[in-house]
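Appendix B, Record 12. Input sequence as logged:
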Amino acid sequence: MGFAISVGNKMPRRLLTAFIAALILLPAPGMAQDIAAGEAVFKKCAACHAVGEGAKNRVGPVLNGVIGRPAGKVEGFKYSSAMADSGLVWDEATLANYLKSPKDLVPKTKMAFAGLKEDADILNLVAYLKQFADDGTKVVAP
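Logged structural output:
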């Protein structure tokens, strides 16, 4: 029994890309994510995005509670139709894939950022963002 992927439909290709990114970007055993390093990486994002209590939309949407949130759904932020209609949900693998190359995952997104090249930076940034609840408070790890 084989597995076939339709190359004529972009959604299966996106799912395959996200799956491959997850395999590549998820930390291997012993590869810890570093929240402090992720905070330093976030400085590249901070010109357009905000996190934490009292964060407001800027050029980009607030990133509080991003993990588990459907893409294109922050209240009060005007997304590109490409993002609003993407059907994506920001889990760790999808966010990592997007951070690697935003326009590859969501063509015609209005996010101008080219992406992060270092896998460690991506993993650390995801760890940093993961700690913020919807209201901007930091979630305490068990």
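The chain has six helices and no strands.
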